[in-house]
Amino acid sequence: MATGNLDKQKTIDLRKKHVGPSCKVFFSHDPIKIVRARGQYMYNEKDEKYLDCINNVAHVGHCHPDVVEAGAKQMELLNTNSRFLHDNLVLYAQRLQATLPEKLSVCYFVNSGSEANDLALRLAWQYTGHKDIITLENAYHGHVSSLIDISPYKFHQMAVAEPSQHVHVIAAFIAESLQSCGGQVIPPVGYFQKVAQHVRNAGGVFIADEVQVGFGRVGTHFWGFQLQGEDFVPDIVTMGKPIGNGHPMSCVITTREVAESFMSSGMEYFNTFGGNPVSCAIGLAVLDVIEKEDLQGNALHIGSYLTQLLDDLKKRHLLVGDVRGRGLFIGLDLVRNRDKRTPATAEAQDVIYRLKEQRILLSADGPHRNVLKFKPPMCFSREDAELVVEKIDQILTDLEKTLGLQMSEAVISENGHTKRKEPSDENGLVHPSNGSSHSHKHTVTLPHDKKTNKRQKT
Amino acid sequence: MATGNLDKQKTIDLRKKHVGPSCKVFFSHDPIKIVRARGQYMYNEKDEKYLDCINNVAHVGHCHPDVVEAGAKQMELLNTNSRFLHDNLVLYAQRLQATLPEKLSVCYFVNSGSEANDLALRLAWQYTGHKDIITLENAYHGHVSSLIDISPYKFHQMAVAEPSQHVHVIAAFIAESLQSCGGQVIPPVGYFQKVAQHVRNAGGVFIADEVQVGFGRVGTHFWGFQLQGEDFVPDIVTMGKPIGNGHPMSCVITTREVAESFMSSGMEYFNTFGGNPVSCAIGLAVLDVIEKEDLQGNALHIGSYLTQLLDDLKKRHLLVGDVRGRGLFIGLDLVRNRDKRTPATAEAQDVIYRLKEQRILLSADGPHRNVLKFKPPMCFSREDAELVVEKIDQILTDLEKTLGLQMSEAVISENGHTKRKEPSDENGLVHPSNGSSHSHKHTVTLPHDKKTNKRQKT
């Protein structure tokens, strides 16, 4: 078992000396040094175990052996660029295409979500002949310069916010299928269809950014945009984070028309690392694991279960303003006042720091940093869900005591102790959880369903 | 030994169907399918061996076992983002810094040369408060939209060339330390100092793009900009391609002043995959191999030897207009007329296609695509150099016969059969090659020096 070689303080000192100060660590006052990870668990230099509720990049579980093996084998054999023919490239493109509507058939492989979104803009500019981009308030689409222009989440952070003139922060044109950094915002069904209609009438295209929410995380569907209904097909889809379980890779998929138009510019597209055989082998292995371990199904079931547990918290804690999400992509919106919806920013930070002391990793996001974000590895289990909710329950109770925020006994009795609705899957099938009412005040003691646990090979 | 699973035609068909048509293959009429590679050799689906003279990304040799092992081991243990402390990140930053002037001390880890150059522009914009970028004619700095604006090599390819208004194609501000795609152009010593003086007087910074030429390739120095002399220190250095021997990673290194200014914008910099422990483990292993196998020394010696062989070609072939380069970064400029310097574009293509038939991979670049580019893996040997030059010699002889281009016997006797100057290293030490004059007309039969061969572990 490897542990860090450097004393933790030495690691911190070297980082201060040689790593850009704009690159922040989690928990800046006492950052965590992680030396190994497996499944949904991470281990620090003392081999203390943390439950990981935030690393959506480690999609099929940290260091999944199938993914590691696929990568290592291909690294040993060949890693070169896409100017040579290779089966991994075409088989992977074919496999990704199969998860999408037929029209979305042409792939470009790149190295990061930012590269993917930048290329999506280039495709759109070339195809439409226009330059204007419509983006959502609080959107985040990446860190390269073209994307900061269309990411209010980023440019509002600047001392002098200076949106580019060709960008209008109005409605949608490029949008995450479910907004992540913006605070886990779920668009109403039918919204994208209407936006797409307006955008297309104006000569534009619809770009669905699936960098954070794709690959089965929403549970009922493989892609977030599919939540909008079968009739909705974006013109361009961008993928990232989970695609390679941590390996730097990403993809843009578009229609034949957009792709042909891009070629007609006369400019070749070459990406040195994009679509290399190692990245494609890893991408294929990730798809295999999602299928073999039915991780989309797990996201649906555990996600529904976690949502229910959080809904229960809302009934007992005034600090909880909203619970929203799909599958294993859930936001717990904390507010100081439910009517005024005053963001409970400091309280959210407090929850996160206290969870960290109990070795649970959670983060807050949204414009006011008051939305607790759940986006764990997809092998997250019922016990994991119960543990994190139990701890949040205790922390909220403490916080509300301090703040003098307490629901009347009547409200608790009315809301808090009702029988929870059982989680159901995409076919409406109920998954009984062997008894479902709370027995004590602030501790959520919940039944287990062993079947859905331990999906992760160890 | 793995071979491709799909019939080659099937691979081509699937590629046409699912991969962006702007993504070109080498030798589009009959592309090569490579299934494995080792050192400076690549193997097709029939296990036929190709000598690789072009893949500078496979810097320490394709699939170097030390690099593969480092990557595989770390993938198994942990692959996560830089918000957690990790020793690999800081040790790698420290190690890279040690190769550079002391002032360049702060690193940002990203995933590609394009991301690196885009970040370099952001650093420069923030630090200087200005927006104008000066770039070199025929420069290429990457494929993301901000970089196409400053890459005449790319934007001149467009049907409607439309340089952005904030870009002036004049002299230098961002420049490759040796221009690669632009046609292996070597700036005169002292040029960067003068440019930097003007740029800094105008409130700007100097960005040295080492994506193609860094990491010892120039032989005498570890970085291309160091060829300009000890007194030259860029404000920002960007790295890419060879940094991870094919693994998608790159880095930007700058001064404390520029880094602090970037932080003062208030905008955090987070890159999902950048600086992950796997990338850093691989980066460290690449540096180890360069050192352990003295690949910089090999680039110097074999590079000098190859340059001499090519200089000899120039003496015997009118088609050769110029031989230029440093270390294992060499351009052979083909011209139809030496006085008028008419680019021999078709002839360069012919050479490349004929070499391919003999299983040698070479490419042409430059604004007229008439410069044969040598940038092989750094384990390239004397025999490799001799083989490729011998083949080029034969092809040029054939081409010149067809074109009616022939040097007079007098010129050949005067120029072609003179004793070659022995290659010398950075200390002026001569490396004898056991006899050094040609004996026959068009075949370069050259002595071997076993010591510098087989640097690559197999």
TrEMBL record, chains A, B:
Its cofactor is pyridoxal 5'-phosphate. It comes from the Eukaryota. One of its GO terms (cellular component) is mitochondrion. It holds the Pfam family Aminotran_3. It catalyses: phosphoethanolamine + H2O = acetaldehyde + NH4(+) + phosphate. Its EC number is 4.2.3.2. The keyword Mitochondrion applies. One of its GO terms (molecular function) is transaminase activity. Keywords: Lyase, Mitochondrion, Pyridoxal phosphate. It is found in: Mitochondrion. InterPro entries: Aminotrans_3, Aminotrans_3_PPA_site, PyrdxlP-dep_Trfase, PyrdxlP-dep_Trfase_major, PyrdxlP-dep_Trfase_small. Residues 413-458 are annotated as: Disordered. Its main location: mitochondrion. PANTHER family: ETHANOLAMINE-PHOSPHATE PHOSPHO-LYASE, PTHR45688. Belongs to the class-III pyridoxal-phosphate-dependent aminotransferase family. Homotetramer. Catalyzes the pyridoxal-phosphate-dependent breakdown of phosphoethanolamine, converting it to ammonia, inorganic phosphate and acetaldehyde. This is Ethanolamine-phosphate phospho-lyase.
